[in-house]
TrEMBL record:
Protein's UniProt name: Uncharacterized protein
Lineage: Bacteria, Bacillati, Actinomycetota, Actinomycetes, Pseudonocardiales
InterPro entries: DUF6401
Highest taxon of source: Bacteria
Region (Disordered): 96-125
Pfam families, alphabetized: DUF6401
Pro residues: compositionally biased ranges: 116-125
Amino acid sequence: MADELNSGWTALAAQPVLRTQLHQHLRAIRTTLREQESAVERPVPVSRLVLLASHAYDTRQRALREGWRPPRVESDWTPEEWTGLRLLACYELASREPKGPRPKRRLTDEDSPSPLGVPPGGRPA
């Protein structure tokens, strides 16, 4: 997934409107994870990384069934690219988890202040 969305990181750096959209996705995903954590009683706790991976997988599979294809180049990224931005947000949050992916490029404070108040490399609460 990370490789097919690579052009999104470049687009985020170049287009402030995309960063705004991404921050909305970050907030929405955090809310979804909190709801999943509290709504489902599990005999064994599930990590946030597993919940993020599940959310990203379900989002991608649903979009692919509906004909979505990842944007290939920076100019393909628009504020209407809901699925791509949602997946980038999942990847960004997963990369902040202790055992999460270590991307070549991710959202940094230079791109935009974190809406979550998390320093680069930090873990969301």
